[in-house]
């Protein structure tokens, strides 16, 4: 196979582990034991060939906060400036390589993640208290992003076809933009930084990655895999640290693209800061942002509750509701409401709350004390409406009891604001139209769900809903690369669809060349 | 052996009742034929059947029917005529009423009654005709502890209700003993997944333990009532929990000498030979009496298993070629019969070849026909059951009980099976010659 053929061979999602088989579970537990012996990991600031300090930030196990998972450097504003400078240098070499060659490097990085997938899953269990099935899926998604964008970048490099008139030749090509700043969250500690970084690199940009301070370990593992696979050190820097490094990257006039996934507050601040265009900055910055959500699941009167109950519970509580796609609200037709609430309450009360390293755990602790306090605050606001919760929860670790609240007033903050925790609010509606009015009234539009067995209703909701990803008769989390391109609209994001065919367009600039092919009346073609 | 098999197959076939015995059955067959011919129409009709219990009025029913039928590109004339009725409120009411009646009628073909009590008359009738039953309680998915408790209470009620009625049934010696001893008149099938809301494929022990605390009293009561309790098998996700549950409970001291109990092996699973070995090993190593009954089935979750595996990029746990399943079924039949008297075999199939193979193999091993039980499903295997009873064999009909909401998942699965071109019944319906039906897989 030639390099080009290899790069475009069919994409398929990395299979998740078959955890219903005992040997698959045992292999993960063995990897966890191996990891535990190596903790804490060391994650230095990496700029060009230099390894900086690996001191300043400790990531800890949310279920056992005294356990240090990684000791990481704390990148300064100067580090950010140095990283961008190195990246600008690295860009010249990396962007000059043929797209197929870059694609091969990314696929080699995918192969490295694949080899280490068990350890990488174990790392997420420890660093982010991500339960096993979710941690395994996260690693698979990271592999998928590398494989998918490698292929897409190769395709994009061919350019687009244009109409051709006699005597002229029109071509449209895509060129990389330059230096991309990637600012990533902790909740998909490998997949999300990997997706944004892989997209930037695949399209020929250099990247500077600033991962969340809660999960430097996973980010370090990602950058190691990319460097080992052949991404030049200058073309990819790692800046573990707090917001100061991220803010410096956003302001830096040599940065061309900012790829951000995280909270709305930070995301909107980035949009504002990136809009500043000082005279010495020779371009307009592009911001790719994925922010919050207040995701609603609509349950119509004809829904199959046998299906709806487990899928809603899964969407709202797995990984303690800490996915941007997680269900926060259920809008149920009044004819089905009593039955749904009764069954949801029963299902919530048997949720297994515990440490992420147990396969029995469905609801792990939330990421940190601040998150615990925030979710408990919202829970307190809704305490008069509490219909069910799974208690008691373990003492040690940042646990929050998964909770179901019913019948809150529409203007309650619990119904309007992103909580990012194991709390779901059920509201009765007259019909699907009223439910859609509620969805419309929210500032967010990330994911949504619909349980209905009427083709006409499905069509009506699909046509009207503003959400980026609508899931019908299934859970609203778990988007797969290449199958469910993921991303929100309205104040949830800039509309780029990660893992979809349009995503790489954010990281390139289009260039059109029109050539006159007549030479004194002599047609060239 | 093959010659005996062919002889047995022809003999059973000759005992089948005449096809047009019941005019209602012929009507049903028309609807089924229509659904078999057109995949899109089949999907639309089944989706409609699935949603019927959730419809709030005749108008709502009609709208759902039409909504689903509109997904069909070229509806056949009778369907197109029905669709034209939906333009007016009166038309929709008539259409809704007709559709509701149709679904009810179809459901009654498969579901023997709404409660065990309501089913008693039909069960007694079958017994008089020479067929025993295993009662199965249809239920919605169990997602709460209260639902698991309710299901367990229904199982208990089924045991009590049948045990109260059974002594008044006439004597049917074929159904009441084999050469190992007496067989209970009362036979109830239970589903482990309905006994606990905690069934999780990645932690079988939690669901197993939670289901065990509800299964144990059922077994104890079954023992007191001299009833048989059969633990059904469902999808691969609950297989491990189910197997372990059966082995652990039946080894408990108070259950060492009863009740009669059973487990299921699904021949469509690639791993079924190893699973059967595990059962045999357990049976050979236990002092428990009476012997465990093993119901050998092909398996009813094929589509679900294949789709789930493909979505995740796994090798499907089931054979993907029907022929491989059929071949495995015969191999497992032999292995199961070999394990007698440690196990009591119950071969559950509507495939005439598989049934004849079991009967012939059993005879080849020098056993009496009474040492082999044959099982069929209500609504699908009624004719076969009549034929087997007519030939003096022991046949048991698996009879689901429950209301329409609870029975819908079951009903749709049975409809899918019954209208699949690959199914034995489908082939039989299409008039495939007997030689082909009896040919080795």
Characterise this structure:
The complex is a heterodimer of chains A (about 525) and B (about 450). By secondary structure, chain A is an alpha/beta fold. Chain A has 16 helices and 23 strands. In chain A, the strands form seven sheets. A seven-stranded mixed beta sheet of chain A has the order 14-15-16-13-12-18-19, with helices on both faces. In chain A, strands 9-8-7-10-11 form a five-stranded parallel beta sheet, sandwiched between helices. A three-stranded mixed beta sheet of chain A has the order 1-5-4, with helices on one face. The radius of gyration of chain A is 24 Å and the shape is globular. The model of chain A has no long low-confidence stretch (mean pLDDT about 95). Chain B starts with a helix and ends with a helix. Chain B is α/β, with parallel strands linked by helices and about 450 residues long. Chain B is globular, with a radius of gyration of 22 Å. At the A-B interface, helix 11 and helix 12 of A face helix 3, helix 4 and helix 8 of B.
